[in-house]
Structure formats: structure tokens, C-alpha cells
Amino acid sequence: MAFPSDLEIARGAKLKPIQDIAGEMGLPAHLLEPYGRDVMKVGLGAIDELVDAPRAKYVLVSAITPTPLGEGKTTTTVGLGQGFKHLGHRATVAIRQPSMGPTLGIKGGAAGGGYSQVVPMELLNLHLTGDMHAVTAAHNLLAAMVDNHLHQGNALGLDVGEITWRRVLDMNDRSLRNIVVGLGAKADGVTRQTGFDITAASEVMAALALTTGLADLRERLGRIVVGYTTGGEPVTAEQLDTAGAMTVLLREAIKPNIMQTLENTPVLVHCGPFGNIATGNSSVVADLIGLRTGDYLVTEAGFGADMGAERFFNIKCRVSGEAPDAAVLVATVRALKAHSGKFRIVAGRPLPEDLLAENPDDVHAGAANLRKQIENIRMHGVSPVVAINAFPGDFASEHAVIREIAEEMGARVAVSTHFSDGGAGAVELAEAVAEAAEEKSEFQLLYPSSAPLREKIETIATRVYGADGVSYSPAARRQLDRFERNGFGELPICMAKTHLSISSDPSLLGAPTGWTLPVREVRASVGAGFVYPICGDMRTMPGLGASPAATRIDLDADGEIVGLS
Amino acid sequence: MAFPSDLEIARGAKLKPIQDIAGEMGLPAHLLEPYGRDVMKVGLGAIDELVDAPRAKYVLVSAITPTPLGEGKTTTTVGLGQGFKHLGHRATVAIRQPSMGPTLGIKGGAAGGGYSQVVPMELLNLHLTGDMHAVTAAHNLLAAMVDNHLHQGNALGLDVGEITWRRVLDMNDRSLRNIVVGLGAKADGVTRQTGFDITAASEVMAALALTTGLADLRERLGRIVVGYTTGGEPVTAEQLDTAGAMTVLLREAIKPNIMQTLENTPVLVHCGPFGNIATGNSSVVADLIGLRTGDYLVTEAGFGADMGAERFFNIKCRVSGEAPDAAVLVATVRALKAHSGKFRIVAGRPLPEDLLAENPDDVHAGAANLRKQIENIRMHGVSPVVAINAFPGDFASEHAVIREIAEEMGARVAVSTHFSDGGAGAVELAEAVAEAAEEKSEFQLLYPSSAPLREKIETIATRVYGADGVSYSPAARRQLDRFERNGFGELPICMAKTHLSISSDPSLLGAPTGWTLPVREVRASVGAGFVYPICGDMRTMPGLGASPAATRIDLDADGEIVGLS
């Protein structure tokens, strides 16, 4: 019998009433608002009201550098959350809201998989409670206000060539990357070149993910820089009198969404900032609430540990003031084999035959990446746990190699079969995480906020990425100088680089050394609260493929969704 | 003491639990889904499940040709709904969902006003349950699929110069009216000129408003024409394999939203198609449900009776198969005076001094418009009731003139002070409507679907608008011929003309005669199900003014919204 599809498994789930899930989390009923039958929102009042509840152990789920297929980080996050229940512990899971564009494009949804899923997956993957759309609206309101300001006479003296604020849509739409607006007659606005990004790439999304409350969000939105005057001075959303209305548009979106896993583990779904040019982490407020709702809060960070975990530590925890107690590094046999450099894995194509054969030596050959990512966790004072995300075709001999590498590095390690077995398959992992979290936390930020921007960039590049140093383009140098002058020098760094290598070159696998990080350009998300150096081509608006997922999504004769994965 | 603001009145409202409102409507609990505390959605299963419930009297609220300020149609709709309760009747109100763009722009919200409002007004005016955003997503998915089709090789042979499908956003953003997309490199799509409309102008919105169920919606979306091949053949959403995914994106948006008035009268809020290029009516499904939930269903149609009511009769009722029992014509002293042609009323400027003075003769001088609109109701076999929407500065002598004109025409008439007095002020109106609805309905469509397109256009122009005839541009002639050839000839007509005159010239007040309707262009919303001749400049993407409402909307120190009206 074939293994059932994610959708088939999800359809068979026995969901608990969502108010019961929220009740088990200890959330006060007066802060809960239902959205449909299976989702609730929880008001931010929970942060204060639960301040005396015992604090959960704070567990980050990260990964080694993934292949283009991804290594099952969300699935492991969900599986681990379910696994704790089998040990008699109460756990809550925190994940990002998936972007709808890729769901309709190539990628499929982001609800986990197999017997470790967040349900109902169709709600998670499509619209959910509309938070993503609220971000789109708030972002595009500011864009309309910018162009209206130009149209009405440009009293602030915006340099039309230095407007950095684009528009967003939650859609994979390559044709909108580069556009000219304001064509037509004089009444149709000022002509200029701009473009659309996907909503996940919006600074408003990043601000929402990093805010600690509504008043803080209002301030962050006011600080958003939309462009510069001809004199080089930043112009903000506050100066355009738009931050108040943007905040009003986000007053529901700021509340985390409560869902559940297939095994009724509570899940907080909130925000979905891009992993390349933004933090790739779910929201601070969801974590602050989740930390008071059980014994463990399992939260996920996007991409490998050099990307998501580094930002989790140095941006998200810097804002929240919370220290993680353990970090899981998801590793797979195929990813370690890929880091040997012997195989080429392309999304949408079958895996190479010889990668699927039993070959522990290939796993060994890719060990450097795992070692370096363990080190990256440990340099922040956090206990690493290697989670071997087991695939049906894996060989025990290959798992043994991963175990050996982890143990050589002094890291805990466990094989997890949560995809096939649900929480029961994650019990060994949950035990290892529980042990790691018992160790005294020695969490430390990698750099102080007060360090100059270049020093912060160089610290991340050399210590986390293993680069020899950093080279800046002339433009990047000018931008860094300008940001320091404008008072943005205290912001942390969110490095925009490929997630397919620890380096900035996606073709360099393992743990590359002897290279220099090239910073082509530097941008500032002043409202969200970080500076992001661009190290490579960063695509902020995906396209659709030759056969988009949307062509297969439909309703069957019973009105049930088909084709969503 | 000053009359309190709409927001102050709304804040003081004693809302009933929304499930109690739904319960009073007799809606089965298993079809209800809460969205937050004060809104529910009702599943379309209600149409079948309530088929044996007594049918309500079906009351349309329309108006004489309004001034640019609007004459209080929504306020009257809400007030009348409230008024029935004072007579011991159960009424449900059906209105459109307001577009967020104008709420953030110049217009303010659309929740009614004074003591006749839908509450909570901030939910109605901002996002509501996300239906508008779902329409945006479904619409723009199709746009992305069109441009992706071009990018992937254009197998269907779309003529790039004949693509009619644009993109939409629920935002007032003039800079997006005319744009060039697909700039950049080859990977960034095919370069072509296009633009954005406001979401209310989306054909998807019109289709959602006119559909009778999910399977019907799936078919309508499949029929949407996105453009033409170089050979002149229409290309549809079905051919682009996108209609299924669009329907999936709309599977929650198809369910009407339940809210309440200040006096706890149930309100169905659903869909907001534009009043100029689309029907300007709330949804068929909301009315089909609402007709089984009480003694009266009071439903509103946008603009004057020549526009909204004509489309309500000939498009909406043609689809639903339901016959209205009475139609209210909202009239105001200021609008009748304006139809005298002696005054110039401009939105955002104070009313002319002499318009505010007592002058029954000026009211008399504007009587032709009211007479013609009464006739327009009656030619559909429906009993008209003139509602004099009383303003605080009105004079009894002026109300008496309106009463006299209506009675001369054999129409019922009532003064309504619902704005100041709530439902108690609408009791006289409710009594008149109840009487009118007791008359045997002789509802008839103005033209059969089988008539040729030109005949339908000419019937509306001559009989409803009072034109001598219709003139077609050469382009309009070609388009009409093409539509007949393509099999779209059976569709009803949705005339796109100004709402500020019964004619196509906004400067012609009263009931103009001796003119010809110029049809410049003809378009087809094949999915929504109508052909729309363009008779004048139709703006489908508003702009922001010098001082947009968004600049005044904010949160106060207690987190309460301010500046929303």
C-alpha cells in the first residue's frame, strides 16, 4: 500500500475544538477570538496576563545547510512538538504563516508533512485569517501615499530616483518585478520606475514579526524609510502621516493564530517574513505568548543555522530579551551526501540514483557542514541537538555516520521518524532536547548593538560563515556611511545571502574556507529594525513555472479541495 | 449639545452576541462560523435548508439621481430595517461590503450614519472577513497566469495587444492606472502595457455577487475572458487552467457575513461590485438567504434608480429568479433642489447658502427627476415608495412638496428621520413599505435575454433614461458584432454611465430629454454575466486627494481607532 498523501492524512485527522486547544494552553477565554471553526486569534494581552505562568523551555529548530528540496524543518518542528506529548510534557509549536504565492506556484504548502502536519492545512496555506493580506494593504497604502505625495506637489522634496518603497502582492508574478507606474495623463500620477515584491518580503511583515506590541508597531511603522530627499535625508512613513492608518490596518494581524497538529498539539502561526532579505522567523509576540503556555515552546527559523538561527539569536532574541534553551539542527542523509559535492539536486527532478544507494562514505564526506552548523549554535551558548530526519529509503549505516559526527562534536543526536510515525517517532528526539534544555543556558549575542555596522557584518561573515573577510562595493560603502550618519548604526544585521551554502556562493558546499564575502549593496529596514547587506542575487518576487500548482488546484464534485499539497 | 459623530454613536451601541442575531434569523447553527466576536459567516447550505421557511417580502432601496454627496441610501436601508422592528416585524438588511480604498481616501466608511448604522463600523470598513482580499487574490492569480502564459511561450496564441485582464488592489492608487510590466531581463516576463483597477471593479467581484453557489461560481470564473487570440477568438480562465484555483481561493468569500445594526437588526454584508462598470448590488446568495430569515428583506442597490435599481431588476433578479415586492426611492430636499439646476454641489465644499434656505419652489423645480425615477420603478411592475430622508435643516414646506409630487404620481411617500432617531424615525416609512409590499407583485423584466444586444441597450436608453436613441462608435459596433459572434449575445446589459444624471452627461439634471446615448466602447464580463457599454469616462481606479482620510486614522493611547468615519 502506498504511503498516503499529506492531504489524505490531513483529511483523516481528528481535530479537537480549537477553544479546547486554547484552553489547554491556559489562554484566558476573554482574549480569544474564533476565525471560522478551526482557528482562533489570541490578543496580546496574554503577554501580560500570563506573566506569572511558568516559563516553557525555549527550543529553536534550525537545520544544516539544506538542499534545494528542504530538509523537513517544519515537519520536524511539528513532529517534535507532538513527541513531547508522548513523554507527558505539554508543548506548543510556533511556525510562520506560509506565503500563498509559492503555494499556488511551485512549492506546495508549508504545513509540515506525513504524520506531522498542522491542520487544517488548506486554511494554513490559503488566506488563514487574512494577516498576509493586511500586511499587503498596509504596505500598499504607504506606497499609494508616496506616489500621491509626488502627485500633490512633493512638499517633502523626495528624490524620485531615490524612492526605495515598492509595492507588494502575495503572488508569484515575475511581470511585476520591474514596472513603470504613472503613465497616462497628468491626473494619472508621476511616471517613475518601481516594482512589486512578494508580501513576505515586505518590511511591514518584518516589522510585524519583530514587534512587541501595538504601540511598538506604531513606532516601527513610523520609522520606515520610503526614500531620500534630494539632499540625502531619509523620508519616513511618519512624515507622510501614514503610520497610524497602517497600524489600524494591522490591529487584527498583530494577534497570533492558534491551530493544532494532527495529534492536537497547539500551534501558534504568526507572520511570514522572507528568509533571504528578512529574518525568516515567526513573530516575537507569538513566542512571548507561547513561552507561557506549556513545558516547551518549539519555534522554527527558516533555512540553515547560518541564516535562520543566527538571525533568531541576534535579531529576534535581541528584541524579545528571551534566551533559547536548546537548538535542534535538522540533518538528512541526502543533504549530508549533497555536501560531499558529488551530487546535483534540482527541485522538481528525481534524485540522482547513486545518491539513493547505501553509501556511508558519502555521508562522511559531507560532514563539514554539520560540524560548522553545530559550532554556529554553540558559539551563541546554546546546546545543539542533531535531529536525523529519517526518510523511508535511509540506511542504518548512514544514520550511524551522522550520529558519530554529532557525538564527536559533543552534540546530542537522535533519529526521528515523525514523518511516518507522528509524535511517537519523535520521542527519542524529544528526550534529547529535554536533556539539552536542562543544561544551564549560557546564551549570548554574537555582537553588541553598539558595534559599528561594518564590525557586525565582519563578525557574522568570519565567525558564522567562516569567511576570511568582507569586501564592499563602492555603493555598499557609501550606503553604510550614510546609515551610520542617519543614526541607523545601532541596528542589528540581517545578511541577505543564499541559503544553499554557508558562503555567499550557492555552488560551494560543505563548510567553505578561504573566501571573502562580497557585499554588493546595503539596505536598511529601519522600521523592522535591521540593516541588510546584499551578498548575491536576491529575488524578492518569485515567478510561476511552466506548470504552476494553481493549474491542479480545484474543487471536486463534493466541493472538497483537490491538488493542494 | 452637538449631534454626536458616527463613531461616538457606534461606540455607545449595545451589541447583541452575533450568534443570537443569527439565531433570531433562524439560521441553522451548523452553518454558522464566527469571525472574531461580532461577525459570522453563513454557509450557502442555508439556501436549501431554509427553503420551507416563509418567504420575506423583498424590498429594494434605491434613490433619485443623487448629488455628489450621496442621499443617504445606506442610512435609509439600515433605518428602514430598524423601523420594521418598531412595528413588530422581523426584518433583515442586505448591503454591500464597502471598498477599503475610498475609506482610506476621501469618502469615509459606508456603514450608514447617525442612529442608523451597521456595527462595529471599523470591522465593516476595514478588511471585514477578508472577502475583498480573496477577490484580489483570485483576480491577480489569473493575471499572473496570463503573463506567465506569455512568458512560457504563449501556446494559446494570445494577442499581447488584446489582453483585457488587468490587475486589482483595494486601494486608491492613481499611479497604477496605467503601467508597463515585464521590464528588466528576459526572466522578468514579457513587456506590455496594462494597469490596476480597484478590487470593487474586478469581474471576479461581480461574478461573486451574481453567483448562486460554488459550482456556479466555478463555471462563471471559467468563462472569464482574459483577452483574444491574434485570430480574434476569446481566451478564457478555463483555458488557462486557473478557474479551479480561483474558486478555491473564494470558497470562504462566497459565504455572506452577518452583522447587526445599532438596534440589533440582522445585516447580511456581502460583496461590493462597482456601481459604474458593474452591478453595484450586494450578492444574490445573501438575498436568497435573507429572504428566508424574517418578514422583510431590505436590500440596497447603488446610485439612482436608473442605475442600481435597473440592474437589480434586470441582472440580479434575472439570475436569482426572485421578484421584489416594493422599491423605496430615497429623496432629499437638497437633491431635488439640485435638480432644479440652480445650484452647484461639490464634494468636500460647503453647500451653497441659498440651497439651505426655505424655498419650496426650488424643490418643485427639481421634481422631474423624482417623477422619472418613480416611473422607472413602476415600469418593472414594482410598487414605489418615496422615502424623504429628512435632514435637520429641512423645512416642512419642502417635505410637503416632495409628498405632493409623489402622491400626484400615485406613489406612497413617508418622511423618515432615521438618521436622528434610528428605527423610531422610520416607522412611517416602514408602514408605507409594508402596505406597498402587500400589493400583488407584477414584477417584469424590461427585456428578454434573447433580444439582440443593441435592442437591449436601446430599450434601457429610451425607456429608463429617456434618450431619443443610441449612437455607437465604430469600435462599439465592432465589439457588439464580435460579442454576438462569440455567443455572448444572450447576456443582460450593465450600462456604464455617470450616476449623477439619468442621461450620460453629468451636467444634465432633472429628467433630460432630446438627447442620444453615445456608446463609445463595449466590454463583456462574460464570467460575471453581463455586457457593459461604456457611455462616458469611467474611472476604475480612484486616486487619493491632497489630504487623504488615511492621514487622520490612528490609534489613541488606549488603542482605540480614531479618525475613521
UniProtKB/TrEMBL annotation, chains A, B:
<keyword id="KW-0067">ATP-binding</keyword>
<dbReference type="GO" id="GO:0004329">
    <property type="term" value="F:formate-tetrahydrofolate ligase activity"/>
</dbReference>
<feature type="binding site">
    <location>
        <begin position="67"/>
        <end position="74"/>
    </location>
    <ligand>
        <name>ATP</name>
    </ligand>
</feature>
<keyword id="KW-0436">Ligase</keyword>
<keyword id="KW-0547">Nucleotide-binding</keyword>
<dbReference type="GO" id="GO:0005524">
    <property type="term" value="F:ATP binding"/>
</dbReference>
<comment type="pathway">
    <text>One-carbon metabolism; tetrahydrofolate interconversion.</text>
</comment>
<dbReference type="GO" id="GO:0035999">
    <property type="term" value="P:tetrahydrofolate interconversion"/>
</dbReference>
<dbReference type="InterPro" id="IPR000559">
    <property type="entry name" value="Formate_THF_ligase"/>
</dbReference>
<dbReference type="Pfam" id="PF01268">
    <property type="entry name" value="FTHFS"/>
</dbReference>
<comment type="similarity">
    <text>Belongs to the formate--tetrahydrofolate ligase family.</text>
</comment>
<dbReference type="InterPro" id="IPR020628">
    <property type="entry name" value="Formate_THF_ligase_CS"/>
</dbReference>
<keyword id="KW-0554">One-carbon metabolism</keyword>
<dbReference type="InterPro" id="IPR027417">
    <property type="entry name" value="P-loop_NTPase"/>
</dbReference>
<protein>
    <recommendedName>
        <fullName>Formate--tetrahydrofolate ligase</fullName>
        <ecNumber>6.3.4.3</ecNumber>
    </recommendedName>
</protein>
